[in-house]
Amino acid sequence: MKSILGTLQPLGRALMLPIAVLPIAGLLLRLGQPDLLDIAFVSAAGDAIFSHLGLLFAIGVATGFARDGNGAACLAGVVCFLVATEAAKVLLVVPPETSAGLTGAAAELATAAWKAKAIARLDVPAGIISGLVGGLFYNRFSTIKLPEYLAFFGGRRFVPIVSGLAGLVLAVVIGTGFASISSGIDQLSWGIAASGGAGLFLFGLLNRLLLVTGLHHLLNNIVWFVMGDYHGTTGDLRRFFAGDPGAGAFMAGFFPVMMFGLPAACLAMYHAALPERRKAIGGMLFSLALTSALTGVTEPIEFSFMFLAPLLYAVHAVLTGVSMALMDALGVKLGFGFSAGLLDYVLNFNRATRPLLLLPVGAVYFALYYGLFRFFIARFDLKTPGRETVEAGAPTVVAAGERGAAFARALGGAANLIEVGACTTRLRLNVRDQQAVDEAALKALGARGLIRPSATALQVVLGPIADVVAVEIRDALAAGGIEVAAVAAADRVAEAPVALSPAALVALGGKANVHTASIHPGRVRVALVNEAVDEAALRTLGVRAVARPADGTLHLLVADTGTLTV
């Protein structure tokens, strides 16, 4: 199970990059509407983002999956998407009634419009698949070497070329199978719609339960961007902004929870804290509550009790499902561009259906969360913030510009970090050794919790600063010198050079390119003249990942170091 979660983790992270542009899209679209500023070009600018989400997903997912986020992966994702969608239009079978009674240019325009509308139904799934192709093909082919007479097309230049060929295969699948794919989407949409309150309850419940793994984004993408159809616009979120009066059911239920319920939970945890610790945690809980109420960012709150008191999280997940069903039963339709906070509620108030009902429902939810949290905390002596048996260490104060280095050291140093990324609220990392991660140091730096989906995957919940911290960590690693005592000691285990196999030497650029090589637990350390190595060839020799802790130094992570030596 953990291997599956580790495989899917990069997809959950990658999906957040294109989703991050939705707030500005929703803001521009709403501000330009006649009921607000009535500025047509501003509204058109916001609509342009919603209309090209497939392309944005192709770029974002490719960036997230490429091992170094190189632009060649993004270009490959775009090429695959454009080839797939445009070539698929040629293969579509257009119903005769589309151009009935029309001739010449009018018939051609009607046919082209039908094809564009048909492909638009699949733009987000096609974009995600294209992004996967771009990112994964970059990892596989970016170091490929072609014969000298074709050398210009080797390396990174080869990635968009082979991705275009993959786009042709995707085009055949979409074009020839469109009727079946479209029918499947319709069946899914009708099935979810027919499930009514039960389906909404299940969506809300699973949305919160999957949050611990980060895979709730996969569920959200189906209902927010694919499900349903309103004049060619698909997905509950996009249909809401397109003016569909039936859209918003899969967003409305989050507003009572995020604007009222979780802030009440913070108040309950504050009142339940030990008297001598209330002052210490009061500022933190107030900040978390305000963040949730205003912006709808809830993970910092949820991770403050998810592991300390799993019972409370189960209650929270059930109440989220109930809220989804309740708001739908009341006929409330609310939408958001980012999340279910006050800012989105105010911005989209005029577009919503029965939005004022949020206030009494929110009041009830405030009382429910406060009462249930206080009851369960007291009844089962749950160790929520301020009630822990062992107090956390004092927060670490780092100098300006040193935060990235501090996080890198807490994560085990440069040699322990294979990949550093982030989504909205968490660092998403791949590490060599989970035991080398200093959890106490991370919490002292502000981490709300740690999740380990697999043997090498690690998520560190930080809140909205996660992406900034990820950039700071990468900058610190690029600057060098980020080691910890344990890793430095491991580097001294084997000072004597070892002989690399002929195949390993070829993959590393030849014998003349290798200064020294030494064996360490789970890895081979190599000092090189030039770091331009054939990573694809190294993977065939058993190398799982390549870490670059400093210029000219590579750590080849392997299960058996003997596969690289003689």
Summary keywords:
single chain, 57% helix, four-stranded antiparallel β-sheet, alpha+beta, 566 residues
Quick structural overview:
With 566 residues, the protein is an alpha+beta fold.
Helicity level, as a percent range?
A: 55-70%
Average pLDDT works out at 86
Enumerate how many helices there are, as a single number. 23
How big a fraction of the residues is strand?
A: 5-15%
* Coarse structural class: alpha+beta
Radius of gyration: 26 Å
Described by the principal axes of the CA atoms, the overall outline is flat
- Widest sheet: strand ordering: 1-2-4-3
| End-to-end gap | 36 Å
Task: Please give the largest β-sheet.
Answer: 4 strands, antiparallel
Question: Which regions contain 5 or more consecutive residues with pLDDT less than 50?
Answer: 485-496
* Annotation, overall tally of beta strands: 8
Topology:
Blueprint: H1 2-19, H2 22-31, H3 40-51, H4 53-65, H5 71-91, H6 104-120, H7 123-141, H8 158-209, H9 216-225, H10 236-241, H11 249-252, H12 254-272, H13 278-295, H14 299-305, H15 310-329, H16 342-347, H17 358-380, H18 403-410, E1 417-422, E2 426-431, H19 439-444, E3 449-451, E4 457-461, H20 466-479, H21 485-491, H22 502-507, E5 514-520, E6 523-528, H23 535-540, E7 543-550, E8 553-558
Antiparallel strand pairs: 1-2, 2-4, 3-4, 5-6, 6-8, 7-8
Helix pairs in contact: 1-4, 2-3, 4-5, 4-7, 5-7, 5-8, 7-8, 8-9, 8-15, 12-13, 12-17, 15-17, 18-20
